[in-house]
Amino acid sequence: MRQLLHNGTLLPANTFRLELPNRGLAFGDGFFETLVFAENNLRLAADHFARMQQAAAALYLALPEALATHHALEATLTGLVKANQLPAARLRLQLWRTGGGRYTPTGDAAEWLATAEAFVPDDTHIAKADFALETHAIHSPLSFCKGPQAWLYVRAAHERQRRGLDEIILCDAAGHVAEAGAAAIFWLKDGVLFTPALESGCVAGVQRAQVLRAARAASIRCHEGLFKQEVLLAADAVFTANVASVRAVRAIGNTSFAQPSLAFL
């Protein structure tokens, strides 16, 4: 029977119920993290924790004790993986403000829920991508984290499915490239690595940070900025990256790309 963690208590998933009022349900008053446990390790735990700290501060939330350091986060979620007897797991950690009230909250304490499912990596190439036509990335005080602007990615995923694409690329309202539907986007041109700046409205992905660290450690010049679509389309090679996988993009619309050389990762 699958187990989950609610406020630190291990419970059977099929009997769990959320009590009302719930500010996460009513107002989206919280955020989430998607994490991967593999090879007996919680990937990029320190990066996830740093983003959680930033998100909690932006939403005026206090992190619960079981999640209050990156070591505590790792220990807590490793316990959930072991309880579910999973060799590798995809984890979702959701935090939301406790209490009732309307828009004005009554406190800064957070409830939390962690779930685990089997993790199957997918590093296959993306054969067919294109730019979103119906949804724009939006830069805001919370666009760096996951949750508050999730509706953008739901709309983009709907469009991707309807158009028969393998991936969709979001741009901001001014036409600057922001990110893929559920991953950061990178491209290589003349040996330089490019990726959109956070000002484009993209999520501050933990794998995005890791790719940039690895590239700089390999003495690859990196350029973060605001780039129009034509800059991306002029790339030599393109790839996406999130905590689950790094995937080559073979074509955006009618423009094809070479296989990226990612030995530095």
From TrEMBL:
**Which InterPro entries does this entry report, sorted A to Z?**
Aminotrans_IV, Aminotransferase-like, BCAT-like_C, BCAT-like_N, Class-IV_PLP-Dep_Aminotrnsfr
**UniProt KW keywords:** Aminotransferase, Transferase
SUPFAM superfamilies with a match to the protein in the record: D-aminoacid aminotransferase-like PLP-dependent enzymes (SSF56752)
Which EC main class describes this enzyme? transferase
Pathway(s) it belongs to: Amino-acid biosynthesis; L-leucine biosynthesis; L-leucine from 3-methyl-2-oxobutanoate: step 4/4; Amino-acid biosynthesis; L-isoleucine biosynthesis; L-isoleucine from 2-oxobutanoate: step 4/4; Amino-acid biosynthesis; L-valine biosynthesis; L-valine from pyruvate: step 4/4
Keyword flag Transferase:
yes
- Give the Enzyme Commission number: 2.6.1.42
Q: Name one GO molecular function term.
A: branched-chain-amino-acid transaminase activity
Catalytic activity entry: L-isoleucine + 2-oxoglutarate = (S)-3-methyl-2-oxopentanoate + L-glutamate; L-valine + 2-oxoglutarate = 3-methyl-2-oxobutanoate + L-glutamate; L-leucine + 2-oxoglutarate = 4-methyl-2-oxopentanoate + L-glutamate
| Gene3D superfamilies found in the cross-reference section | 3.30.470.10, D-amino Acid Aminotransferase, subunit A, domain 2 (3.20.10.10)
**A GO BP annotation:** carboxylic acid biosynthetic process
Q: Does the keyword rRNA-binding apply?
A: no
Family assignment?
Belongs to the class-IV pyridoxal-phosphate-dependent aminotransferase family.
Q: What is the name of this protein? A: branched-chain-amino-acid transaminase
Q: What is the lineage of its organism?
A: Bacteria, Pseudomonadati, Bacteroidota, Cytophagia, Cytophagales
